[in-house]
Amino acid sequence: MSAAHDVPPFAVTLPLAPRGPAVLAFGAWFKNALCLAAEGEARLGATVGDLDTPEACHDMDAWAEAMIAHRTPAVVAHDLHPDFHSSRRAVELAERLGVPAIAVQHHHAHVAAVLAEHGHRGPALGLALDGVGLGTDGMAWGGELLRVDGAHFERLGHLAPLPLAGADRAAREPWRMAAAVLHRAGRAAEIASRFAAQPAAAMLAQLLDRAALCPPTSSLGRVFDAAAGLLGLCPVMHVEAEAAIALERAAAEHLDNTGEVEPEAGGWTIDGAGRLDLLPLLVALADEPDTGRGAARFHVTLAAALDEWVALAAMRTGLDVVALSGGCLHNRILSQRLAAALRARGLTVLEAQRLSPGDAGLALGQAWVAVHRLIAGEGRES
Question: How far apart are CA 141 and CA 153, in angstroms?
Answer without folding.
Answer: 14
